[in-house]
Specification:
CATH superfamily of the largest domain: Glutaredoxin
Catalytic activity: [protein]-dithiol + NAD(+) = [protein]-disulfide + NADH + H(+); [protein]-dithiol + NADP(+) = [protein]-disulfide + NADPH + H(+)
EC number: 1.8.1.8
CATH topology of the largest domain: Glutaredoxin
CATH class of the largest domain: Alpha Beta
Number of domains: 3
Enzyme class: oxidoreductase
Strand order of the largest sheet: 11-10-9-12-13
Radius of gyration: 25 Å
Protein name: protein-disulfide reductase
CATH architecture of the largest domain: 3-Layer(aba) Sandwich
Keywords: NAD, Oxidoreductase, Repeat
Largest sheet: 5 strands, mixed
Distance between the termini: 66 Å
Amino acid sequence: MGREPPEMEEARENGGVGGSVLPMASLISPTGNEVQISELEGKIIGLYFAANWYPKCEAFTPALTTAYHRLKDHGAGFEVIFVSCDENRPSFERFHRAMPWPAVPFGDIGCKKRLSERFQVEGIPRLVVLAPNGEVLQPDAVELVHRYGDRAFPFTSARVAELEADEQRKFASQTLEKIFSVNGKDYVNGSQEQVPISSLVGKTVGLYFSAHRCAPCIKFTAKLAAIYSNLKGKAEDFEIIYIPMDKEEDGYLRSCSDMPWLALPYDDGASSGALARYFDVREIPTLVVVGPDGKTVTREGRNLVNLYFDMAFPFTDEQIRLLQEMEDEDAKGYPPSLRHTGHRHELSIVSDKSGGGPYICCECDEQGLGWAYQCIACGYEIHLRCGRDMEGRAE
């Protein structure tokens, strides 16, 4: 859990965080009971700015809840206060009931405004962590909780540096066998047999985090399957392992039936969850690529597949640079502007050096990066290849 920070002793001497930092008379529990500010004295406080209507808040709240319960179980001096950004009381109450910590009363608009202004809250979710004396330990600990969970406590800079150093050592010594040692098995499931992890050493391996009841996963699985078939047909040393994020075994089995590659054995999500935390997987589908040496090549395999298809293999920085250079050369053969059937305005060619960047193609709904045809007025962007379907070309 980490040692108690020196701010704890200072807080006891100076009167604590309550009266000096938190501008409210009392809090409210998820069940509607009053919580006195005095109950927070001597504790590290996380001010959780969030809203029921925002998907990223809904996704982060369970992670924070897990860390919160673990810290409580270990007797750590930690408390969270929900500062609602919800638009109405029913939304606030519905969201708060799913949390184990107190909140600023919904009607205390002045308090919520002062807290937002004091800590310059411009986006959510936001977790401002305060020492017992009111000092800001972390202006936003959302990323730390995602990466380290309860191990981030007490959120001091020294603790964060320690965790980052441990993480660097962990990835430096990573091997394929170590990655899968988390589930206590030395094999994965093939279509008809168990495949030893040792037989995959020396190959480029994609770890595919996905689930059956996930529309983006269904779409990407079909594309990945075609690329997998192409690469296997070329005798490339490439394999994919399905890391199930399904909540039920039936979904896992259905997913496996749609996939031509290997799969991690189902165990109610224990192994999959551990791997998702290890690789900091926030959303699905995610494709993490591990190289022949067992080290992580990229966690952005999904985007690279969407951008470059099977040409992305083996997903290394060198290969991606080569593909980007090829794109730069190919772009010279495209017209500087055109009119596309999907948009009423003229589109101009742009690159990452002239206004381009990561985008979702408005024609094929796939990832784009750098080169694009873009409408400056509307933000409409399409791949160069999607621009070939056009009504007329501007001179």
